[in-house]
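Hey, resending since the last one bounced:
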Amino acid sequence: MYDKKLALSIKNLLEDNNSKYFKLKDISKALQVRKHKHKDLRDTLFGLVKDQEIRLIGKSYTSNKKSRKEYLIGKFDARSLAKGKSYAFVIGEDKDVFVSSEDTLNAYDGDIVKVEVRSGKRDRKYGIIVKIIERNRGNFIGTIIDYRGKKYLQPDNSRIHTIININKLNNAVAGDKVVLEITNWGNRFKNIVPTGNVIEILGKAGNPEVEILSVIKHYDLPLEFPNKTQKEAENIDDQITENEIAKRKDFRDLITFTIDPESARDYDDAISFEKSENGWELYVHIADVSHYVHTSSALFAEAFERGNSYYFPKLVIPMLPARLSNKICSLRQDEDKLVMTVKTTFDNDFNIVSQNIFNAIICSDRRFSYEEIDEYFAGNNNEFDPDLAVRLDNLLIFSKALNEKRKKNGYLHFDLPETEYIFDEDGHIIDLKRSKETDSHKMVENCMLIANEYTAKLLSSHNTLYRIHEKPNEQSLARLSETLSRCNIDFSVGKNLNKSIQKLLDSLPSKEYHRVFDKIILRSMQKARYDVINRGHFGLALKNYTHFTSPIRRLCDLVIHHQLKDIIMMREPSFSKKELIQFANQASEKEIVADDSEREVDMKNKQLFMKKHIGEEFEGIILGMKNDGLIVELDRYPVTGVMEFATVPGEYFSFNQDMMLVTAKSSGKKYHLTDKIKVLVNRVDNDIYFSLVKK
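The C-alpha cells again:
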C-alpha cells in the first residue's frame, strides 16, 4: 500500500542526498523501515517513480531534482562479462568507466553508450548506462541449440554473453550455423534475453567452410564486388602499347624473378640482382597498379572500402577483382608487365651509393616458391639456370650482410611462427605445423625494406602516409620489467631502447624461453599503424618507413604509388592532406579487422582439429597463468589452451602473481612459466581445455 508519510520521508532522504543513489535496502536502513512495512516501502517507491517524484536507474533510486551530473560517451567492452565476471567497462576517449553487470541496461559488446558517472565509496568512480546511442551490429552469427524443447542462438562471439531467443526459425534446425537479425534487445534488468529472426542459413556448424563463412559474415567482409567495380575491371585494356613502353625504363633484359608462397596467385613484387666490381645493384619491381586503378574510379573507391585483402586458409578475399589482382597486375612468368622499379646501388661494403625510382616494364624469367629457394640453399635442388643460380647465391650473401647491419641499427627480431594448415582432398585439416622463417623469407623481406624505406624518404617532403611503430610507453615497459623480474630475467632500459630489447631477446637462454617470452615482450609494444605524421618505426629501427611493395593487396601502397607518380610525372598532388588522413585511418582500421578475422578463423580451425583429439595426451609448455588455470601450448601442434585447475580431483592450486608461481597444495608441486607439463585434451567449445596428466 502507498504510504504518504513514508513517501515524504523517502523524498526528503533523496533530496538531502541529491547526488547519491540508494538501493532498496539502503532506503530501508536509512529510514529504519521494519520488516512488516517492506511491502509498503516497495509500493510507495513504485508510486513515486510512476509519478516522476523520484527516479529509478537500474536498481537505484535518486531524487528527481536536477543536479549537475557527469556523463561519458564510449564503447561498451564486455570482455569481462564473457569471462563470467559481474562487471564490464565503457571505454571513453580519455578514460574508462567501471560498470556493474546490473547497470549495463541492454548494451552488448561494441555498442556506443551514454554512461552516467557516479562516485561511490572512497570516491571511486563507477557508471550506470542510461542510453544505447548506437548498436555495434544488428545481426549475430551463431549456432542454433535446443534447450528444453525451445530453440536459441548460441552466438559465436564469446563477448555476446547470453543466448538469444529465436522468434522465426525460417527452416533452420538445431546444429545449423545461421545469421540472426535482432528484433528486440531484451532487458537485462528483468532477465529478458534478446529476440531475433533467422535471415540466412550458412550450413552445418563444424564444417570448415561454414565456419570460415561465419567469420566472414560476422565481420561483414565483402565476398563479391559491386557490378560497377566488376565491369570497370572487365573493361580495362590489358594490352601494353609501344607508346606506353616508350615512356618507361625497359628492364626486360634484366634477369628477374618472383618469390612467393606456393599457393599465391597475386605476385606484386619481383627482384633483379646484379653483382659488379664496384658493388651490387638491387632492382625491386612492384606491380604498377596505379596505372590501371585511377583515383576517381570505382575500383579505387572499392579498394578504399576494403582497405586490404583478407587471407584465410584456402580462401582469399582480394582488395581488387581477380582480373586485376591475379592477371593484369600480377607479375606472372614470361609476361610483359608494367611496374614501378626502385633501383639501389650498393658499394662492396653494402652501403647505399644511390637510389632512383622509375616507371618501368619487366618480364619475369622465373616464378619461385619459398620452398624451392630454401631447397636450393640447402643443396637439394640444383636444376636452376646458372644465371639465376649465381644471382640467388649473391643475393643470399647480400641479405645476410643486411641482416647484420639492421641488427646493429636496432632492428628487433621475434621468433613468432605462424600456423601452416595441411588439408586432405575434401578440404579437412589433417595436420598443423609451425612455420619457419627461412633464408628465402628474410631475403625477400630485406629487399622490400630497402624499397619501402626509400619511398618514405622520397615522399617525406610532401604530405604522405607513413607506416609508424611508436616506442613502448613507460607503463608498458615497467609492467614488462616487473613480469620478467618475477621470472629471474634481467631487463634494464639503457639510453638506446632498441639495443636494450635486443639484449633482452639475446639473453633468453633457450628455445622454450623464446616460445614464452617473445610473446610477452611483443605484447608490451605498441601496434604499428598508418599515419600522416612521421613518428618513425621502432621495431625496424627506421626513421622513415611506409608501405609501397604490395599495391595489389593494401590501400596504403596503392596511395603511395599514386603519390610517387605525381613526383615522377611532375604533376599536381593526387590527394589532399584531409584525404590522406582518411586513408590512414581506414587502412589502420581495416588492418585490425583483417587481423581479428584471420585470428578468429585460425582459432576455429584449431578447435575443429583438436575435437578429433579429445582424450589424447600431449606434452606442452606453460605460456601463462591465471587464477583458474595454466595457459599451455602443445609441443606437437601450434595449439594453445587452458589447463583448468578444477579438472584435477582432490587438489587445490594457489596462484602467486607476484612470483608468477602456481603451487599444488597437496603434492607441493610448483609450476613456473616455461615448465613442461603433460596434458589431456578434455573438451573443446569456446576454447580448448586441457586437464593435467600427473606423472
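The chain has 17 helices and 33 strands.

Sorry for the duplicate.
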